[in-house]
Amino acid sequence: MALPRSRRTARRTVSAVSAGALVLALTATACTVQDRNAPSSGSTSDSASGSSTTGRAPGVTGDSIKVGIAYPDLASVRAFIDVDLGDYEATYKALIDKINARGGVQGRRLVPVFGKLDVLSAAAAQETCVKLTRDDQVFAVLGTFAGPEQVSCYTRTNRTAVIGGPQSRAVYAQAEAPWFSEQPGSDLAAEVVEVLARRGDLTGRKIAVVGGAQDQGSVEGALLPALRKAGVSPVATGYLQSFGVDAATLAQQTNVVLQKARSAGADTLLLTGTPAQTLPLVLEKTSWRPRLLFTDAPGGYQAASGKHDFGTLSGAVVATPDVVWSDPMLQECASTVEKADPRLAGKLVDPNTVPAGQPLPGVSLWTACLNLRLFTAIAGKAGTRLDYTTFQRAGLGLGAIHLPGYADDATYGPSSTSGSIPVKAKTYDPATNRFVPAAPTGS
């Protein structure tokens, strides 16, 4: 989160991933696709946000709403993937200035407070969480997070509302503040598997599953059961530790996992979470070319600087929402940011069209545009009496809403707090180094 090519993404390959995905994938996030048949991590009543937050309204005054903006500091991952996703602070400020110039939200202006997230340091991420929630006491935090567990610091430990981040039912169930996103979490891989199964991508294949170590519970609780339901018994399962390890250690771990899968006779790897970005980097240095299937597009890998053997992606398939960069709402955001910084004129383009290794300011644009759209829609619907009770009720009653960059509407309600945006299969096109809509299968 799919991730524009750098969501994810993080964010991911834009045409192949949701806005949150690319950055999330780049920032060691596991993001899969939502199971529409089971209630999402959302609940069926206002109490979903936790009774302890009822009526709370931190950061809200008669004329302002203080919002936290959490965004990834990618300095710590440049040893893995060298990607420039643009200036998050300047982008958010430009868009917020326009919202405020139009009267803000129900007459209240937005006051942003920024916090960087070192994507490989849990301690640093915790410090940012404490700063925004306890020191600055914001009403809600908008941003990207390295997995649903990181969101828990906000929604559970510090009882602060969140917009964004990959939702997981287990983490959401423990939330004590409202949480809405357009990114279904790592528990929700069932629909991806269903799409792959319908296409025949699983039939007759010897599949090995590779996920992030931090997502082992989600893989074993959601992804593997979905495969079994589809009649697939993986020949091997492996996990990669992404947090707190250097590039050499990660490469060593990846080689061990690849050897295990190959020894088990695998001809296909199903990658979820961080391995979608990091494993192909190691695989291309070997002679083995298994088919790759993704629950989230490998946008970080595709956008990495340097020379790469993208033959690793030959025949690869991903299932993600459809993204349309020409979407008028997204283009309005681009125009606003360009007016604030004329140097960006002509540069806020579809990340899919940017050569590998070049800056991708369109990623931070999409992230900010999308998160602000969702927050202002919910806060606006909450009315002039803005607190966590009215905010939660408004989000659960939001219904269908267009989010910038998506071809299909999101839908929010008691059974979906992550938007339930439909996902569709994409196949890798080596001529363009992009994932493009898959040909119809007739099913």
Distance between the termini: 26 Å
Low-confidence runs (pLDDT<50, min 5 residues)?
1-51
Helix content: 25-40%
Strand fraction:
15-25%
Rg measurement, Å:
20 Å
The domain tally reads 2
Order of SSEs, N→C? HEHEHEHEHEHEHEHEHEHEHHHEEEE
Counting helices, strands and paired strands, the structural category is alpha/beta
Q: Main sheet: which strands, in order across? A: 7-6-8-9-10-13-14
Question: Tally of extended strands?
Answer: 14
The fold-level CATH name of the largest domain is Rossmann fold
Give the name of the CATH superfamily of the largest domain.
Answer: Response regulator
**In the CATH hierarchy, what is the class of the largest domain?**
Alpha Beta
Give a quick account of the main beta sheet: strands, pairing sense, barrel closure. 7 strands, mixed
Shape: globular
* CATH-level-2 architecture of the largest domain: 3-Layer(aba) Sandwich
Q: Total helix count?
A: 13
pLDDT averaged over residues: 84
Provide a descriptive summary of the structure in words.
The protein is an alpha/beta fold and 443 residues long. It is built from 13 helices and 14 strands. The strands form 3 sheets. Strands 7-6-8-9-10-13-14 form a 7-stranded mixed beta sheet, with helices on both faces. Strand 8, helix 9 and strand 9 form a beta-alpha-beta unit. Helix 2 (88-101) packs across helix 11 and helix 8 (247-263) packs across helix 9 (275-283). The longest helix is centred in the last third of the chain and has 22 residues, at 361-382. The radius of gyration is 20 Å and the shape is globular.
